[in-house]
Amino acid sequence: MIRFEDVSVTYEGAAGPTVRGVDFEVPEGELVLLAGPSGVGKSTVLGAVSGLVPHFTGGTLRGRVTVAGRDTRTHKPRELADVVGTVGQDPLAHFVTDTVEDELAYGMESLGLAPDVMRRRVEETLDLLGLAALRDRPIATLSGGQRQRVAIGSVLTPHPRVLVLDEPTSALDPAAAEEVLAVLQRLVHDLGTTVLMAEHRLERVIQYADQVALLPSPGAPLVLGTPSEVMAVSPVYPPVVDLGRLAGWTPLPLTVRDARRRAGILRERLGRATAPGAVEVPTTPGAVEVPTTPGAEGVPMAPGAEGVRTGGTVPEPPLPTASRKPSRRLRFLRKPSPPAMDGPVPAHPAVAHALTVRRGRVEALRRVGLTVAPGETIALMGRNGAGKSTLLGALAGLVEPSAGTVRVGGAVPHRTPPRDLVRRVGLVPQEPRDLLYADTVAAECAAADRDAGAAPGACRTLVTGLLPGIGDDTHPRDLSEGQRLSLALAVILTARPPLLLLDEPTRGLDYAAKARLVGVLRSLAAEGHSIVLATHDVELAAELAHRVVLLADGEVIADGPAADVVVTSPSFAPQVAKILAPQKWLTVTQVRKALA
Amino acid sequence: MRTRTTGTRTLHPGAWWVWALGLGTAASRTTNPLLLTLLVAVAGYVVATHRTDAPWSRSYAAFVRLALAVLLLRLAFAVVLGSPVPGSHTIVTLPELPLPHWAQGVRVGGRVTAEGLVFALYDGLKLAALLVCVGAANALANPARLLKSLPAALYEVGVAVVVAMTFAPHLVADVGRLRAARRLRGRPDRGLRGLAQVVLPVLEGALERSVALAAAMDARGYGRSAEVAPAVRRTTAALTLGGLLGVCAGTYGVLTAEGGGYGLPVLFAGLTVALAGLWLGGRRSPRTRYRPDAWGPRAWLVSASGVAVAALLVVAAAYEPSALHPGVVPLAAPTLPLWPMAAILLGLLPAFTVPAPLKGALTAPPTSEEPA
Q: Is B10 left (phi over 0), alpha (psi -120 to 50) or beta?
C-alpha cells in the first residue's frame, strides 16, 4: 500500500540528508508503528507518504514513494487526498471549519462527493468514532481527546486507504489515549485501513502494532520487523520491554497481559528481595497513613474533599517499608532544611487552602487544598481539563483565586511583583518556547541573569550542567524539544526558586530525553527544591513522584504516596505496577536494584 | 414526524441577516425613544430565545456594551462640545474654554441645555439600536455558514475569512500566554513595553500555525480543480471583466447628475454579466456542499417580518413624521404612535415561528431526515 524505494530527503540548507536509504513497504490493512529517538526523521517519513514532503516543505527527495500505486513525485498532496488521510501533531492546527459536523464534511466537499454520500458518511463516522453527541459542538469547546478523534474523523470521511498519524496520543491523558487507539484498532480491523503512525509513548501503542519500523539513529537504515523482534534491538522501548529484557523473557512481552502471565517467578524473587520502598523516594511522608494530622505536616485537605482520599482508606499493605516507617516519619517531622537554599526557609514552599478558581461560568478548581513540603516531588494527574494547569497557574500567580488562599513562600503569588515572585516559585509552562525570547543561548542566559538578579554566568553554568555541549550561538529554535525544555528549566532555575512547577514536561520527549529530565529533577529534589509536576505520563510520575495528587473536575479526589494512589488506579498505574501487582513496584529501576 | 433541530441548522443564516437589517433600517427611520426601545426589546427577545451556546453567539453581549458606550459617548460629546440645537432650558453652565479665532465654531464647555441633551439622547439611541440589530444578526446566524452560501467561485474568499475568524481567538490566547510567560521570567507583564516584546513571538506563532493549517488543508484536498475547456475559461474571464466594467460605469452614471438616464440600466446589466461570470467560474471547482442551508418557508417568514418592519416604518415616516420624530425644540414628551408600534411588533414573528435551539443540551436530537 505504501512503498518507499531507497528514499533520502535533504532539506534546503541542511548539511546532509535527514533520512537516508529508507526502503520498506507497508502492506494493506496493517498498523505500522514508526519508532525511534527524537530527530531521526520520523515526521519526514510520514510527510513523504502524504506528499507534503517535499511538495510543501521544500527540499529534495531522492528515490520513490508510492501510495496505492500513485507516485508522490507526480501527485501533489491535494491529489493524494482521497487515498491518504494525514493528522499532524497538533489537531487544532488541522481544523478549517468551526463545528464538528462541518469539519467531518470538509474533506469530502473538497473532493466533490455527492451530497447524499457525504451525509451518509458523516453519520457513519460520527457513530464509528463515538462523536454523535458532539456533532453540533463548536470545535473550540472540545477536550483534547475529542479534538483528536474529530481530527481523525475528518480525514476518515473521504475513505482514505491509508491513515498517517504523527504522535496521536502525546497530548492526551491515558483514558483519552485509549479512546483514540481503540478507534484506530477498529479502523484497521473493520475497514482494513492501513495505518502508519509515529509515537514516542510506545507503552501506549506497541500492543496495537502489526509491525514496527525503527529508525535507530539519524542517518541509520530503517529496520522493519515484528514488534518483539524490533524491540529486542531498539534504543527506545517501553517499560514492559525493559522489564522483559531484565528478566530475560523471550520472546519479549509487549503487553501487560503477556508480561503478567510470565511474571510469576519474578514476583516470587521480588517478594523475597528488599522491597521497593527502600529505593528512590527518600522523603516520602509516612508511607501509607499520610492522612494522620492534616495541617501540621501532612496534606491538609479541603473540608469538602475529605473522606474521598484513597490513601486514607487503604489498609496497610504488607510492605517491607513498614519497618522503616517510624524513622522516616521522624525525619519528615524534623523537616531537614535543605542545604542548597540560602536565607530563612518558610515551613512550606507552598500552601493552598480551600482554593477555588472560576473561569467564566466554570469552576476550574473547587476548594482544593495542597501543601508542598520542602524537597518533596508531587505529581498532579487527572484528565485533560481537570484543573492541573490552573492549580499550577494559581501557585505561580498567573491565576487569581476567586476564593480560598494560596501562599508561596509566605507570599500571595498573584499580588507579588514578578521580580520577587521568581525567587519563590518557578513555572516551566507547557510550551517551554514561550519562555525564550532571545536569538542565542548566550543572550538568553544573560537576560535570565538580569531578570533574576543573579551573578553573571549563573544561568550559563546551569545550562552547561543540564545540556552539555550546547554552543553559545545556538538559536533556541534550533534546539530539540528536550533541549529547549532544559534551557527553559535553566532560565527558571537561575533565580533559585525553592518551588519548581512543571506543566506537562515530557510532551514530545523521547525516552532518552525523559531519562535525562528525571535525573535532573531528582538531583534538584535532593538539593531541597520542591517540585510539582502536572503530567499525563504515568511512567514519569512513577519515577519521580513522592506523592500523587489526582484531580477530577477541579477537585482533589486522591492524595497520597505515589505507590498507593497509582497502583489502585487502572488508568494511572504504570506498566510495571500493573505487571507486578499486588506488589508495589513502580519502575524497572526499582526492580533492577532489588534484583541486584 | 417533525423533529426539533437547532435554529442555525434549519434556518438560513441569510434570513436572520435580512430580518436584523430590516429592524436596523426601521431604527434608522425614527428618533422616537419609545419606538427605539421597543425595537431593541424585540431584537433582544428574539436573541434571548433563539441564540445557541456557540462562541459567535456570545458576541451579542459585546455589541450591547458597544451600543451603550456609543450612547454615553454621544451624550458626553453633547455636554462637552455643545449641541447644534438651540435651546432655552439651561441645566448647567460649564466653564468655557477660550479658543483662538481660527477655531471659530468649535466650542468646549459652556451652556448645557435640556434640548441639546435630549437631541443627543435620541440620536445616540438610534445608533445604539442599529448596533444591537447587527449584534442580533451576529448572535443568531453562524457567520461561517453565511459565507458557505457564497457562490462557488468566491469559495476561496469565504475560506480566507473563516480562517481569519478562527485565528483571532487564537491570537488573543497567544498574547495572554506569552504575557504570562513574561511574568514567569520575572518581568512586569503590564504596560506597553510588555506588550511590545510579546508581539514578535505572537506573530511568529501565528505564522507557524498558518503554515501548519495550509499543509493540513493541502493534504485534505483544498484547491483541487476540475478540467475546464479553454473556451469556458476565456468566457468566464470576459464575462467577469466586462461585468465589473459595466458596474463601474453604471455606478458613475447613478452618482453623477447628468447620467440619470443610462446609470441604472448599465449598473444592472453589469451586475448580471458579472454574476454570470461568477457562476461559470464556479464550474472550475469540483466542490460540493454538505447540507447546504435551504431557504425554506421559515426563512421567507423571518426575512419577510424584517422587511415588513422596515417598509412600514419608512411609510410611517413619510405620513406621520411628527410621531416618529418627537419634538426637541420646543421640548415635547414623546408619544407611542399605535401603527408604527404594531409594525415593530411584527419583528417578533421569528420568536414564534422558528423553533428555539435546545439550550444547554448541545447534543443534537436524533435525525429523521436521513437520505433515502
A: alpha
Closest CA to A534 of A430, A413, A435: A430
A168 Cβ partners below 8 Å, 6+ apart?
A87, A148, A152, A180, A181, A184, A197, A199
Cβ atoms of A23 and A15 within 8 Å: the answer is no
Question: Of all helices (H) and strands (E), which one includes residue A354?
Answer: strand A350-359
Q: How many residues does chain A have?
A: 596
Question: Which residue in B200, B196, B202, B193 sits closest to B174, CA to CA?
Answer: B202
Q: Hey, are the CB atoms on A429 and B180 less than 8 Å from each other?
A: yes
**How many alpha carbons fall within 13 Å on the CB side of residue A476?**
25
d(CA B23, CA B129): 9
Distance CA A124, CA A489 (A): 46
3-state helix, strand, coil in chain B (%, to 5): 70, 0, 30
**Residue B333: how many CB atoms within 10 A of its CB?**
7
Residues 3-22 of B with CB under 8 A from A: 6, 9
* d(C-alpha A468, C-alpha A476), whole Å: 15
Q: How far apart are CA B134 and CA B43, in angstroms?
A: 10
The residues near B197 (Cβ < 8 Å, ≥ 6 apart) are A437, B182
Strand partners, A65: A4
For the stretch A538-567, pLDDT in tens is 999 999 999 999 999 999 999 999 888 888
**What is the C-alpha separation between A347 and A329, in angstroms, rounded?**
16
Place of cell 473561569: A359
User: Positive or negative CA dihedral for B339, B341, B343, B346?
Assistant: negative
Please list the helix, strand and coil fractions of chain A in percent, rounded to the nearest 5, in that order: 40, 20, 40
Cα(B226)–Cα(B337) distance, integer angstroms: 59
Counted residue by residue, chain B has a size of: 372
Phi-psi region of A529 (alpha: psi -120 to 50; beta: other; left: phi over 0): beta
Question: What is the grid cell recorded at A459?
Answer: 544561568
Regarding pTM above 0.90, the answer is no
Tell me the three cell numbers of residue A502.
512543571
Contact B54 A138 (CB under 8 A): yes
Three cell numbers written together for B22: 430590516
Cα→Cα distances A576→A238, A241, A558, A579, A583, Å: 10, 10, 21, 5, 10
| Chain B residue with Cα closest to A448 | B185
What single-letter amino acid sits at A557?
A: I
What one-letter code names the amino acid at A363?
Answer: E
This model of the complex carries an ipTM of: 0.77
The phi and psi torsions of B331 (rounded to 5 degrees) equal: -60, 135
b/e map of B290-305 (b: 16 or more CB within 10 Å)?
bbebeeeebbebbbbb
Contact of B172 with chain A, judged by CB distance below 8 Å, is answered with no
| A517 vs A483: CA distance, rounded Å | 10
Q: DSSP letter at A72?
A: T
- Map residue A403 onto helix, strand or coil: strand
Q: What is the mean pLDDT of residues A312-319?
A: 35
Q: Is B182 in the A-facing interface, judged by CB distances under 8 Å?
A: yes
Distance CA A433, CA A396 (A): 18
**What is the C-alpha separation between A160 and A154, in angstroms, rounded?**
11
Can you list the domains of chain A with their CATH numbers? 2-235 (3.40.50.300), 278-424+497-595 (3.40.50.300)
Q: How far is CA A319 from CA A173, A266, A310, B129, in A?
A: 30, 17, 17, 73
The string of pLDDT tens digits covering residues A105-162 is 999 988 889 999 999 999 999 988 888 988 888 888 788 788 888 999 999 899 899 9
> Quick check: B73 and B138 in contact, CB under 8 A?
no
B209 closest CB neighbour out of A93, A108, A495: A93
CA distance A299 to A532: 14
- CB A480, CB A517: distance < 8 Å: no
Instruction: Report the gap between the CA of A244 and the closest CA in chain B (Å).
Output: 40
